[in-house]
Amino acid sequence: MRKNLIILSLIFLANCLVAQPPQRIKAKIITGLMGGQIDGDQLAGFNHPGLIAGMAMEMRLAKIISFQPEIMYNQKGARSTDKSLYYAVVRLNYLDLCGILNFYIKDKFILQPGLSYGLLYKAKVDRGGGFVIDNSYFNATDACILFGVEYKFTPKTAVNIRSGYSLVSISPVSNWFNNTISFSLRFQLGN
Fold first, then answer.
1. How many CA atoms lie within 13 Å of 46's alpha carbon, on the beta-carbon side?
2. CA distance 141 to 178
3. 130: phi > 0 → left, psi -120 to 50 → alpha, else beta; which?
4. What pTM value is reported for the model?
5. Backbone phi, then psi, for 105, in 5-degree steps?
6. Mean pLDDT to the nearest integer, 46-67
7. pLDDT tens for residues 82-127?
8. CA dist 12 to 5, 100, 162, Å?
9. For the segment 152-171, what is each residue's pLDDT rounded down to a tens digit?
10. Between the CA atoms of 39, 43, 46 and 51, what dihedral angle is there, to the nearest 10 degrees?
11. Which structural domains are found in the chain, ordered by start?
12. I need a surface site. Which of 3, 36, 46, 98 has the fewest CB within 10 A?
């Protein structure tokens, strides 16, 4: 099921490239860092660092609006601190399929509301005895609401700050929600 959804997503992005006039599409490479926590697990704070890597296709819809599908690898999760009630590290590796609307406020300043659908690739949990793969404790998918702000330093380079929050619980046995803040650099390819 997951492989089929990934293949369909790649076909969707390829069709977007073919269906639009070339001057209206901008391909982007995305890389960055994420701070994450799981709301409801009693490990408060954005203490879990994670990596972000992906690509996007921005398609201009109007002068100040564009649609931007993204395929992102995101490392979400949680980590205990000295103040936590117990020791735990949760690493959740997702492939996120995002749909973002870009609203250009100025030439260099963009507001980005959107949604994402995440496919859980691997869940690793350390409760003090080392990491164990534990996908059964987490749902295979995660739907999130997103809001971000992007600033373009140059016509082809931008910095992005984005928050994300799960719309439904990420665990079938606990009421847990992914809560993330990400910082990324975005590089436009071609003209």
1. 15
2. 11
3. left
4. 0.83
5. -85, -45
6. 90
7. 665 667 788 899 999 999 999 999 889 999 999 999 999 899 888 7
8. 10, 15, 24
9. 999 999 999 999 999 999 99
10. -90
11. 27-189 (2.40.160.20)
12. 3
